[in-house]
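thread: overnight batch results

M.L. [08:02]
morning all. the overnight job finished for the chain we discussed friday. pasting input first so we're all looking at the same thing
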Amino acid sequence: MNLETNQLVKKAKTTEIEIFVINKVKEYRIKLGYKKRQLSLELRLAHNHVYKIESPKYTTKYNLNQLNELAKIFGCTIADFMPKPYVETDTIEEYMELHPRIKAKYEQQQRELDEKMRKKEEEKERKKKEKAAAKAKTKAKKK
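M.L. [08:03]
and the structure it wrote out:
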């Protein structure tokens, strides 16, 4: 990720892949002569929706349904809006850093899962020890 893209990512709460998609749609829009307002209306959205998506001031982004319709409008595939083969940045980590509440929720779930697994392992060990003790007790009675 270059410095300009990195600054845009932080400023707009947008990941590198989201920026790539937005720029690719913008490229098609300009190439085919669509105005932002015209494209917004083609997508049956508010007249300023595409403006908000293309502006770094807003966190608005295209969803998959909109990308599907854009592919129809532009006569391309949804894949044409995606990087080939992918962006190098860890976009999940990037997304989590941009959305601290989601990151905190994920981390809480992970701690709960770790605790559950630890308790399960402790229970397994306890039963194993009880079984060994019962076996030793039975063996001792036979002598």
